[in-house]
């Protein structure tokens, strides 16, 4: 096998709205617009993900994407300043305080993007 790269995909029911959200709330610009394919390709730290148009956006109930950061508190403060709201969870194995869960060697927080996708940000200890 000769795989060249991998690309994660996130569904968007309104691609223009999703592009604006990722720009305004996360400060991300597309590396490539693939208008013929109905998507936009983003690069974060060398990893790729694509937002693509589909009617199935927001139907997954799991974390669709994790963005790793070196300073979770500063990243969350910046994102909150842009209008991002973090989820609170209280279930077996996962409890957040002020949006943050302590998970062994990692601190994580989750938010829901404009398309209903669950996105995590994480800082490894």
UniProtKB/TrEMBL annotation:
Pfam families: Glyoxalase. Residues 4-124 form the VOC domain. Gene3D superfamilies: 2,3-Dihydroxybiphenyl 1,2-Dioxygenase, domain 1. InterPro entries: Glyas_Bleomycin-R_OHBP_Dase (IPR029068), Glyas_Fos-R_dOase_dom (IPR004360), VOC_core (IPR037523). This is VOC domain-containing protein. It comes from Microterricola viridarii.
